[in-house]
Amino acid sequence: MSTFTHIDAEGRVRMVDVSGKWPTLRTATAGGRVTMTPETFEAIRDHRVRKGNVLETARIAGIMAAKRTAELIPMCHPLNLTHAQVDFFPEPETFSIRIEAVARIIDVTGIEMEVLTAVSVAALTIYDMCKAYDKSMTITDIRLLAKSGGKSGDFVRQREKKGETP
């Protein structure tokens, strides 16, 4: 049985033991999308949402979530990120906001879960702040876009849609 598994020799769940690995620079990028009505999109764009600046609040929420991923995802290693960022790309043609999170660390384990959590929480924050305007908003396309470093090597997702950037 591989050392890097969540299952021990007796078949019980455990945290993966990464104590034998060497720290390396690891980066990861994740993306997602929130689609909404034209009115909601314009309210966010024009800073007319009564609860405040939606994208700045979502940015803070996403960064905070990345830093606390181990508290949310069972068996996830607690990490001290050296960099975390969340950015938003409004797309008026689809009345959606594309979200992208990037994180870096020098450590023995990857940070894919941290960027996926950052995107998820940022999207949920947008929904929460705008649900009074639009309960039909959809959160989609949350996925790993790229990662580098570590034993499993590099990964870059191929473009899936016109205009999508990995």
Automatic annotation (TrEMBL):
The protein's annotated catalytic reaction(s) are: (8S)-3',8-cyclo-7,8-dihydroguanosine 5'-triphosphate = cyclic pyranopterin phosphate + diphosphate
The record describes the protein's role as: Catalyzes the conversion of (8S)-3',8-cyclo-7,8-dihydroguanosine 5'-triphosphate to cyclic pyranopterin monophosphate (cPMP).
Subunit comment: Homohexamer; trimer of dimers.
Source organism of this protein record: Desulfococcus multivorans DSM 2059
- Which pathway does the protein contribute to? Cofactor biosynthesis; molybdopterin biosynthesis
Q: What is this protein called?
A: Cyclic pyranopterin monophosphate synthase
Q: Mention any Pfam family matching this sequence.
A: MoaC
Query: Which protein family is named in the record?
Result: Belongs to the MoaC family.
Alphabetically, the GO molecular function entries are:
cyclic pyranopterin monophosphate synthase activity
Q: Where is the active site?
A: D128
**InterPro entries according to UniProt:** MoaC, MoaC_bact/euk, MoaC_sf, MoCo_biosynth_MoaA/MoaC, Mopterin_CF_biosynth-C_dom
Q: Which UniProt keywords apply?
A: Lyase, Molybdenum cofactor biosynthesis
Please give the biological process terms from Gene Ontology that the record holds.
Answer: Mo-molybdopterin cofactor biosynthetic process
Its Enzyme Commission number(s) read: 4.6.1.17
Q: What class of enzyme is it?
A: lyase
Ranges for the Molybdopterin cofactor biosynthesis C (MoaC) domain?
15-150
